[in-house]
Design brief:
The structure holds two protein chains of two kinds. Chain A is an alpha+beta fold. Chain A folds into two domains: 15-67, Ubiquitin-like (UB roll) (Roll), CATH 3.10.20; 82-119, no CATH class. Chain A is built from three helices and three strands. In chain A, a hairpin with a 7-residue loop joins strand 1 and strand 2 (30-37). The longest helix of chain A has 12 residues, at 40-51. Chain A is elongated, with a radius of gyration of 28 Å. Chain A starts with 14 loop residues before the first strand and ends with a helix. Chain B is an all-alpha fold. Chain B has a single domain (13-258), classed as Ferritin, core subunit, four-helix bundle (Ferritin, Up-down Bundle), CATH 1.20.1260.10. Chain B is built from eleven helices and no strands. In chain B, helix 1 packs antiparallel against helix 2. The longest helix of chain B has 31 residues, at 131-161. The two termini of chain B are 30 Å apart. Classes of the chains: A alpha+beta, B mainly alpha. At the A-B interface, strand 2 and helix 1 of A face helix 2 and helix 6 of B.
Chain lengths: 120, 264
């Protein structure tokens, strides 16, 4: 992205900021892109104009890109979670619940059933 | 059409004339500065700023449209004709705002001076006895707060950066300063505005508030404050302008002048 246009080949005083936007109080901050700016304050200002020209929002976070600690793309083992059988982590045991509830609720309840329940 | 102001003053010919002059001052300020800002499109210091500054430019033009629309309702003429067809001698903007954009530092210093001034003028307008103006000023004031924050942040950043940034900023302040006086001028209608309550503050009082606030920004940026300059011979509020305005009008009215009836 653009840097300052000084005629000399100076190191630009510009940093990359990642931008997160919260659209309403029930939402959370979502990454929307990045901006190049000379200070965090300027990053907020240009983020507002670059990402919120039309949409509404209630909060902007700008984070120095260098403050993000990322995992390595090479270390694929880091993400292995199915090398052995991990079916016990799935929630498949619950898939019939809705059907069972429905059948239970649809069963007609008679006076005898209530008496029977009360006697127990 | 309104025939009375909020305080019961009749909107007679003389009061209406003062109101028209005042609205023209505000409309022309926004139009001319918005056009000068637009000249940064594509060449602002960085891509993000390019987008941000274009938005500010659009905002200023939209604000001018609001004032021209009020003038249209007062029967002064169509908004387009007011913006594009009036000769240079009928323009009421401050001379400061018609100057070329020069460098980024000049643009920011001029922007800061204008935005601080506009806050003061808009708050006064929010208490105007002319209700359509008071209502519009309230909305415009909310948008202008962001413009001021933008200029203020840049001003502080360049002022405290040292080196070339600081040098250019100081040079820009000197260039802006000589053109300041007519920004605060109310032309010939100051007394009539006060008598009718369209504007309850005097030009002197408003300028005093401006100096007070500007000094705070100068301190934050570590810049040396300058005394207010002597009044130049020309006053934009009286229709007196530099060749810079002629050049600017020729540029932005080119399409309109080619065919005023064209739809574009």
């Amino acid at each position: 992205m653009a840097v300052n246009q000084g005629s000399q080949q100076k190191q630009p005083h510009y940093d990359v900021y990642e931008v997160f936007i919260q659209r309403d109080f029930l939402g959370y901050h979502t990454h929307i892109g990045s901006v190049v700016a000379a200070s965090p304050e300027l990053a907020q200002l240009v983020a507002r104009e670059n990402f919120l020209r039309r949409d509404a929002a209630i909060s902007i976070w700008v984070v120095h890109q260098t403050d993000i600690h990322e995992t390595s793309y090479e270390d694929t083992d880091f993400f292995i979670n199915r090398a052995t059988d991990k079916s016990y982590r799935d929630v498949s045991g619950y898939v019939d619940n809705a059907k069972k509830w429905k059948a239970f609720k649809e069963r007609a309840i008679t006076i005898e059933d209530l008496v029977h329940d009360a006697k127990r | 059409m309104l025939d009375k102001l909020q305080n019961g003053t009749a909107l007679d010919a003389q009061t209406q004339q003062a109101l028209v002059e005042y609205l023209l001052q505000m409309a022309d300020d926004e139009l001319v500065l918005g056009q000068r800002y637009a000249e940064w499109l594509g060449i602002a210091p960085d891509l993000e700023e390019d987008v941000a500054f274009s938005s500010i430019s659009q905002d200023e033009l939209a604000h001018s449209l609001f004032y021209y629309s009020l003038l249209e309702k007062l029967g002064v003429g169509g908004a387009d004709a007011l913006a594009y067809a009036r000769p240079v001698g009928e323009r009421r903007n401050s001379i400061l705002l018609e100057r070329p954009r020069r460098d980024w530092a000049y643009t920011l210093v001029r922007g800061l001076c204008f935005d601080v001034w506009e806050q003061i003028r808009l708050v006064a307008a929010m208490h105007s006895t002319y209700l359509p103006l008071a209502q519009g000023a309230q909305k415009i004031h909310r948008e202008e707060r962001y413009h001021l924050l933008h200029m203020q942040t840049w001003f502080e950043r360049l002022g405290t950066a040292g080196g070339e940034a600081r040098e250019r900023l100081e040079q820009a302040v000197a260039q802006v300063w000589v053109d300041l006086p007519d920004l605060f001028s109310l032309g010939t209608v100051g007394d009539a505005l006060q008598a009718s309550g369209i504007l309850s503050l005097t030009a002197a009082k408003q300028r005093f508030t401006w100096e007070e606030r500007m000094q705070t920004y100068f301190t934050q940026a570590g810049m040396v404050w300058r005394t207010f300059p002597a009044t130049p011979a020309q006053n934009g509020r009286m229709g007196q302008h530099s060749a810079d305005l002629t050049e600017l009008l020729n540029t932005f009215t080119e399409v309109y002048q080619t065919n005023p009836a064209a739809v574009w």
